[in-house]
């Protein structure tokens, strides 16, 4: 076990450099955190961190911004940050969502990145409040060993700090880390720390200055398949004849420890729990209710191993890739389905229409590295605009489908690094005159009419030269 | 009152008899057109819209290339993905007719803003052309007999299993369009002979060009038409019409055919095309003699002249042919051509042709299966043709007889015979039914003279006034008519049954009935090919028996060593040798071919019988044909092929056996049978302890049908 030690040394170096480069920003020093509790859930490949912060204003001026800081390595893998505040007295507490935005601070040590939480009411001098912060990290568990054989189980590293990285002084803090199983190969000890069952506890630690950092490394077994969609293109096509057609193109990869050597079907079939424990056998997609004409196929044809269960509230599509996915194996496929339009298309008071649809990936427990949503508006629609609850890249395209003359406007939205919590709704507004609906049937009818006229004319006209 | 009022309104719409006939004819043709299309869609409904079998995957891949890269790139395409390390000049070694047709349809649809996928176009090309063939059959039947025979021919060919076998949706093969082209060329030629019109001759030349671009079976046309002309010359039916038609077809058709790179100069250089050339010169001699006869009044002098000219012509032709053959300018007949004339030739000389199941001589049962009642109607039709001999009927008789012979030689050539059989049977049906109805109607007419005009009473009175001199004639006719319709309806049900049961399986996806009557799908081929496509390096080379080459390149997108094109026998024999050697010897060959993966097809778990173990003897034979170290008797025990404990030691340790049965000995396949029980052959395997030294299992599909092995790098020496 040489490598973990080296990693620990490297992280220790980071700690020192961080400690040395402490520079207190004057705008920050009047806040302090009296109590912090952090729970890190490592049971799947998406790391969920729940942070409970009790923030106190020790300064003299009221403030409405609380900063969270993250080391740069974590920011790249940060999928989402949410903050909630508890409101009301003891019995009637409600949680209120707060705005969180990435910000920059002028003198950030070691490229630490910041997120600002905007409080509803400024925190007056001497007051305190409790914030609940949830953030998700993707690609943060590194398989070690990086290559495993079929019968081996998957071990991963998780790196973090025993102390919460914060621009504020923290009086007391505790960190709980939940591992998927009791099998933990090793973990860094930062006293007081201990392990019980599937939980590792760090702390409580008292009185740590801002930007304290103490790297830890946990080496544990995680056999949950690391389902990562490298690229997902969702195309939502609106037809005002009553159908919403969704086509989703997936590039799925198992991002866990790479498969090494033999794949034996005998072992895989006869002892499934011991062999290929971390393999990805099936996926569950949660689709909207009243879904119809579902298909699941890839470049070379239909994939027959899928099951659809529908009820009035949701539809579940269980799909199996053509072959079980071992670490590093890939599969591409397409899922398509139709939905009744009235469930998703609405009209505003000013005669505009809008589509209300979910943004993220319908597969459960998957990370999407890059998502592109294309909303294909009907031919003849104008002034498209999209409203998305988080920042995305947007542009317009034109697509030609059946019987299109001028082409359809496509609103394209792109976002990187998505987790299932991004499955919130977005809206696309546009104007559309219903008369355009008749364009294509009329075109077809006139084409047939002309054809018949031509036939009649041909039968009645004598074209021969001779008489 | 109201009745007369409506009839007044309908009066302008009332049709004359001729118009009614036209209306009925057009609507029957439309229905047949649609029927021919939809009866071929069983496979799409049962499975999915997919390409079938082996060769169609190559055609699909090339069509995809054509639509993506354009015609010139397609024409100049050098394919690195097949026949590694040789490669294949695709543009120069295929008949582009099918791909160009599909690409044109695709372009047209996109021009009309139908955003269809090229796969759908390819899947539906064959049914579309089958529909067109019914129209051609109608016109052809009309040309040689009458429009009634044409209609019957259209109906018969629309559902005939012999044709459906190669034209169901998804069977995207050359034959799909070629049968249309073949029949169309024949129709245009017969039309040209009948009319003597240069326009029809020109049209037939273009039809021939399309046929040449679509299928190697064009050789049949270029030999049948000269034969037909020769027969006409011998029977004294030489005419100016024939002269115009044949010369136009031959000269223009030949020039056009030379534009196809794969055919090139074969029309003037290959032995198979020499008959056409000989007849062409003979025609000129005939024309010259005709002219001389016209000029010379003395018959005795003419006889003398005739004798000298004919001897000279034959001598010159013979010398030219001899010199051409001797100097190598004219290539001798190819093995495939020989095997057509002599059914036993391939078995002795070209195992690679004999190994293909569709090249086997036809069994009687498959004639019955593919033709059903047409088999009995065919001789009857021939009788009618001889009864009314004309240039056109002579043609159809010759087409029917020659193609029937070829259909007997090779199973796949039933396809070529089908249009002729349908047309001749249609003549039989049409002529019989016509005679019978004429008989019935003449009676009615006789009866009508004495009776009133009321139609209902006419029938009754006609029955009453039966002609006493010919008792039961009418009843007999009725009975025969009913019998004919009964037979035809049996034919229709048989065709539908055959289509749905036998000819609509894509053979990529296998379906079976489960224990509870449910449908079980074995999608192992695509599972393996998709695994190759996604999880192997882009430049990986896959070695497998040649049957799977096209599928691996098309679906797996990986380089293969050999494929279904079978142009290089030695290369295939090398693969056959590798498969039938011991592992370390095979490893040498595998290394020399730079192979990364070896793929075998194995049906022991599912009972799938057309797997590599059952094809293995052909690998041994083809390998042994080039490399005499491989000897067939080494793999047999007393001339018997077996895989159980009593198998030959070489068999039990050759690469194919090892790869197929690796770790199969641990597997329980059937309840109550020992582990390692091979369900495809119904025996317990003889070698359960298989160790692989130079290869390792890389992937096995869920039902074990496809097994892929990775070739290990050589061991370090120290």
From TrEMBL, chain A:
<keyword id="KW-0812">Transmembrane</keyword>
<feature type="signal peptide">
    <location>
        <begin position="1"/>
        <end position="25"/>
    </location>
</feature>
<comment type="similarity">
    <text>Belongs to the OST1 family.</text>
</comment>
<keyword id="KW-0472">Membrane</keyword>
<feature type="transmembrane region" description="Helical">
    <location>
        <begin position="442"/>
        <end position="461"/>
    </location>
</feature>
<dbReference type="GO" id="GO:0008250">
    <property type="term" value="C:oligosaccharyltransferase complex"/>
</dbReference>
<dbReference type="Pfam" id="PF04597">
    <property type="entry name" value="Ribophorin_I"/>
</dbReference>
<protein>
    <recommendedName>
        <fullName>Dolichyl-diphosphooligosaccharide--protein glycosyltransferase subunit 1</fullName>
    </recommendedName>
</protein>
<comment type="function">
    <text>Subunit of the oligosaccharyl transferase (OST) complex that catalyzes the initial transfer of a defined glycan (Glc(3)Man(9)GlcNAc(2) in eukaryotes) from the lipid carrier dolichol-pyrophosphate to an asparagine residue within an Asn-X-Ser/Thr consensus motif in nascent polypeptide chains, the first step in protein N-glycosylation. N-glycosylation occurs cotranslationally and the complex associates with the Sec61 complex at the channel-forming translocon complex that mediates protein translocation across the endoplasmic reticulum (ER). All subunits are required for a maximal enzyme activity.</text>
</comment>
<keyword id="KW-0732">Signal</keyword>
<keyword id="KW-0256">Endoplasmic reticulum</keyword>
<dbReference type="GO" id="GO:0018279">
    <property type="term" value="P:protein N-linked glycosylation via asparagine"/>
</dbReference>
<comment type="subunit">
    <text>Component of the oligosaccharyltransferase (OST) complex.</text>
</comment>
<dbReference type="InterPro" id="IPR007676">
    <property type="entry name" value="Ribophorin_I"/>
</dbReference>
<comment type="pathway">
    <text>Protein modification; protein glycosylation.</text>
</comment>
<keyword id="KW-1133">Transmembrane helix</keyword>
From TrEMBL, chain B:
<keyword id="KW-0328">Glycosyltransferase</keyword>
<feature type="domain" description="Oligosaccharyl transferase STT3 N-terminal">
    <location>
        <begin position="26"/>
        <end position="424"/>
    </location>
</feature>
<keyword id="KW-0808">Transferase</keyword>
<feature type="transmembrane region" description="Helical">
    <location>
        <begin position="367"/>
        <end position="385"/>
    </location>
</feature>
<keyword id="KW-0472">Membrane</keyword>
<comment type="subunit">
    <text>Component of the oligosaccharyltransferase (OST) complex.</text>
</comment>
<feature type="transmembrane region" description="Helical">
    <location>
        <begin position="208"/>
        <end position="231"/>
    </location>
</feature>
<feature type="domain" description="STT3/PglB/AglB core">
    <location>
        <begin position="542"/>
        <end position="598"/>
    </location>
</feature>
<feature type="transmembrane region" description="Helical">
    <location>
        <begin position="89"/>
        <end position="109"/>
    </location>
</feature>
<protein>
    <recommendedName>
        <fullName>dolichyl-diphosphooligosaccharide--protein glycotransferase</fullName>
        <ecNumber>2.4.99.18</ecNumber>
    </recommendedName>
</protein>
<keyword id="KW-0460">Magnesium</keyword>
<dbReference type="InterPro" id="IPR048307">
    <property type="entry name" value="STT3_N"/>
</dbReference>
<dbReference type="InterPro" id="IPR003674">
    <property type="entry name" value="Oligo_trans_STT3"/>
</dbReference>
<feature type="transmembrane region" description="Helical">
    <location>
        <begin position="243"/>
        <end position="262"/>
    </location>
</feature>
<dbReference type="GO" id="GO:0046872">
    <property type="term" value="F:metal ion binding"/>
</dbReference>
<dbReference type="Pfam" id="PF02516">
    <property type="entry name" value="STT3"/>
</dbReference>
<keyword id="KW-0325">Glycoprotein</keyword>
<feature type="transmembrane region" description="Helical">
    <location>
        <begin position="177"/>
        <end position="202"/>
    </location>
</feature>
<keyword id="KW-0464">Manganese</keyword>
<dbReference type="Pfam" id="PF21436">
    <property type="entry name" value="STT3-PglB_core"/>
</dbReference>
<keyword id="KW-0812">Transmembrane</keyword>
<feature type="transmembrane region" description="Helical">
    <location>
        <begin position="274"/>
        <end position="293"/>
    </location>
</feature>
């Amino acid at each position: 076990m040489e490598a973990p030690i080296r990693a620990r040394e490297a992280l220790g170096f980071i700690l020192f450099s961080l400690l040395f480069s402490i520079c207190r920003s004057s705008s920050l020093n009047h806040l302090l955190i009296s109590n912090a509790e952090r729970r890190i859930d490592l049971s799947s490949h998406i790391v969920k961190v729940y942070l409970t912060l009790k923030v106190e204003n020790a300064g003299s001026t009221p403030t409405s911004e609380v900063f969270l800081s993250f080391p740069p390595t974590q920011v790249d893998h940060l999928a989402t940050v949410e903050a909630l505040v508890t409101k009301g007295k003891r019995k009637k507490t409600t949680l209120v969502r707060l705005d969180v935005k990435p910000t920059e601070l002028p003198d950030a040590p070691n490229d630490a990145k910041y997120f600002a939480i905007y409080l509803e009411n400024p925190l007056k001098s001497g007051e305190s409040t409790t914030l609940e912060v949830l953030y998700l990290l993707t690609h943060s568990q590194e398989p070690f060993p990086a290559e495993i054989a079929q019968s081996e189980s998957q071990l991963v590293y998780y790196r973090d700090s025993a102390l919460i990285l914060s621009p504020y002084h923290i009086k007391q803090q505790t960190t709980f880390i939940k591992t998927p199983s009791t099998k933990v190969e090793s973990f860094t000890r930062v006293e007081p720390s201990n392990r019980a069952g599937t939980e590792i506890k760090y702390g409580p630690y008292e009185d740590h200055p801002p930007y304290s950092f103490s790297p830890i490394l946990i080496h544990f077994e995680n056999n949950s398949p690391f389902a990562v969609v490298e690229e997902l293109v969702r195309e939502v096509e609106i037809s005002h004849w009553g159908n919403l057609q969704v086509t989703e193109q997936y590039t799925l990869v198992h991002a866990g420890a790479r498969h090494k050597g033999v794949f034996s079907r005998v072992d895989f079939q006869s002892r499934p729990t011991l062999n290929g424990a971390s393999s990805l056998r099936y996926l569950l997609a949660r689709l909207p209710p009243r879904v119809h004409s579902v298909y699941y196929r890839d470049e070379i044809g239909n994939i027959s191993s899928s099951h659809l269960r529908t009820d009035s509230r949701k539809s579940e599509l269980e799909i199996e890739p053509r072959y079980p996915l071992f670490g590093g194996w890939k599969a591409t496929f397409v899922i398509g389905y139709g939905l009744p339009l009235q469930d998703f298309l609405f009209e505003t008071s000013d005669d505009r229409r809008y589509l209300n649809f979910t943004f993220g990936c319908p597969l459960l427990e998957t990370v999407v590295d890059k998502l592109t949503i294309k909303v294909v508006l009907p031919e003849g629609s104008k002034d498209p605009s999209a409203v998305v609850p988080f920042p995305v890249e947007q542009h317009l395209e034109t697509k030609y489908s059946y019987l299109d003359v001028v082409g359809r406007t496509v609103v394209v939205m792109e976002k990187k690094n998505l987790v299932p919590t991004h499955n919130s709704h977005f809206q696309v507004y546009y104007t559309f005159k219903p008369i355009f609906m008749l364009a294509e049937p009329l075109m077809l009818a006139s084409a047939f009419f002309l054809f018949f006229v031509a036939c009649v004319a041909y039968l009645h006209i004598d074209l021969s030269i001779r008489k | 009152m109201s009745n007369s009022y409506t009839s007044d309104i309908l009066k302008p719409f009332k049709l004359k008899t001729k118009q009614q006939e036209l209306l009925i004819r057009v609507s029957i043709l439309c229905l047949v057109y649609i029927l021919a299309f939809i009866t071929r869609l069983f496979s799409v409904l049962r499975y999915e819209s997919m390409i079938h079998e082996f060769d169609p995957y190559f055609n699909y891949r090339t069509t995809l290339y054509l639509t993506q890269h354009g015609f010139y790139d397609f024409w100049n395409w050098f394919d690195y993905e097949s026949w590694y390390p040789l490669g294949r000049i695709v543009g120069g070694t295929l008949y582009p007719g099918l791909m160009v047709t599909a690409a044109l349809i695709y372009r047209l649809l996109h021009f009309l803003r139908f955003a269809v996928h090229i796969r759908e176009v390819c899947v539906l090309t064959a049914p579309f052309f089958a529909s067109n063939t019914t129209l051609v059959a109608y016109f052809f039947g009309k040309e040689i007999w009458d429009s009634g025979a044409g209609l019957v021919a259209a109906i018969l060919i629309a559902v005939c299993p012999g044709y459906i076998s190669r034209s169901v949706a998804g069977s995207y093969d050359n034959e799909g369009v070629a049968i249309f082209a073949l029949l169309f060329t024949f129709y245009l030629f017969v039309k040209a002979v009948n009319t003597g019109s240069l326009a029809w001759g020109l049209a037939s030349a273009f039809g021939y060009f399309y046929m040449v671009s679509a299928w190697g079976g064009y050789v049949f046309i270029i030999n049948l038409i000269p034969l037909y002309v020769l027969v006409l010359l011998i029977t004294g039916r030489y005419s100016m019409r024939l002269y115009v038609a044949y010369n136009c077809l031959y000269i223009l058709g030949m020039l056009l055919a030379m534009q196809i790179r794969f055919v090139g100069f074969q029309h003037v250089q290959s032995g198979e095309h020499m008959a056409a050339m000989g007849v062409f010169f003979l025609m000129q001699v005939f024309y010259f003699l005709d002219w001389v006869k016209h000029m010379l009044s003395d018959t005795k002098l003419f006889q003398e002249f005739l004798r000298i000219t004919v001897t000279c012509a034959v001598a010159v032709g013979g010398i030219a042919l001899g010199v051409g053959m001797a100097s190598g300018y004219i290539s001798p007949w190819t093995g495939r051509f020989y095997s057509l004339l002599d059914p036993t030739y391939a078995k002795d000389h070209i195992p690679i042709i004999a190994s293909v199941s569709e090249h086997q001589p036809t069994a009687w049962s498959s004639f019955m299966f593919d033709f059903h009642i047409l088999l009995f109607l065919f001789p009857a039709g021939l009788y009618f043709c001889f009864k009314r001999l004309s240039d056109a009927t002579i043609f159809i008789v010759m087409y029917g007889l020659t193609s029937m012979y070829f259909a007997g030689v090779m199973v796949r050539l039933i396809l070529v015979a089908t249009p002729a059989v349908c047309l001749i049977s249609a003549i039989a049906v049409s002529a019989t039914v016509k005679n019978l109805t004429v008989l019935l109607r003449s009676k009615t007419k006789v009866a009508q003279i004495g009776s009133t005009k009321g139609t209902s009473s006419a029938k009754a009175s006609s029955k009453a006034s039966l002609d006493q001199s010919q008792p039961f004639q009418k009843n007999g006719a009725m009975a025969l008519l009913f019998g004919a319709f009964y037979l035809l309806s049996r034919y229709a049900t048989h065709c539908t049954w055959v289509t749905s049961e036998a000819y609509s399986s894509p053979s990529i996806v296998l379906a079976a009935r489960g224990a509870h009557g449910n449908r079980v799908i074995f999608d192992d081929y695509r599972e393996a090919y998709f695994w190759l496509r996604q999880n192997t390096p882009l430049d990986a080379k896959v070695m497998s028996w040649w049957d799977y080459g096209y599928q691996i390149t098309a679906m797996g997108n990986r380089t293969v060593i050999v494929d279904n094109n079978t142009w290089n026998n030695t290369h295939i024999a090398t693969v056959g040798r590798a498969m039938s050697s011991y592992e370390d010897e095979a490893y040498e060959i595998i290394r020399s071919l730079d192979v990364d993966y070896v793929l075998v097809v194995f049906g022991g778990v599912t009972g799938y019988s057309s797997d590599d173990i059952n094809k293995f003897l052909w690998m041994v034979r083809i390998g042994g044909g080039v490399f005499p170290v491989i000897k067939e008797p080494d793999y047999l025990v007393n001339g018997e092929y077996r895989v159980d404990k009593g198998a030959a030691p070489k068999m039990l340790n050759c690469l194919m056996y090892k790869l197929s049965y690796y770790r199969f000995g641990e597997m329980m396949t059937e309840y109550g049978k020992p582990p390692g029980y091979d369900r495809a052959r119904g025996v317990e395997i003889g070698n359960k302890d298989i160790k692989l030294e130079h290869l390792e299992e890389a992937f096995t599909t869920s039902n074990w049908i496809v097994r892929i092995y990775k070739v290990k790098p050589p061991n370090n020496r120290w």
